[in-house]
Each structure stands twice: as C-alpha cells, then as structure tokens.
Design brief:
- It is a single chain.
- The chain has 45 residues and is an all-alpha fold.
- The chain has one domain.
- Helix content is 76%, strand content 0%.
- It is built from 3 helices and no strands.
- It starts with a helix and ends with a helix.
Length: 45
C-alpha cells in the first residue's frame, strides 16, 4: 500500500489524538529519510 493512500488516515488519526499534520510529516521524513520536499512530491504525484 502506498504512503499517499494512507497519509490522510495518518493525519486524521493524529488530529484525533491532538497532534498536527506537521508532526505526521516530521515522522514520515524521519522514517523515510526524505527531506521536507520529498514526502510532498510523493504525496502530490
């Protein structure tokens, strides 16, 4: 399953737990090794 498919679900779950979209982005960057532009490009495509 692609990260782009799961991303909205991760953000929704994080927001339910009083977290932010930026925190989700930071975690994805840490896990994947991408810089901040990397996940945005993958999620956009």
């Amino acid at each position: 399953m692609a990260v782009a498919d799961m991303y909205p679900h991760y953000v929704a779950k994080a927001e339910r737990k009083q977290r932010t979209k930026q925190e989700v982005d930071r975690i994805i960057e840490w896990l994947t090794g991408y810089d901040s532009a990397g996940p945005k490009k993958v999620l956009r495509d």
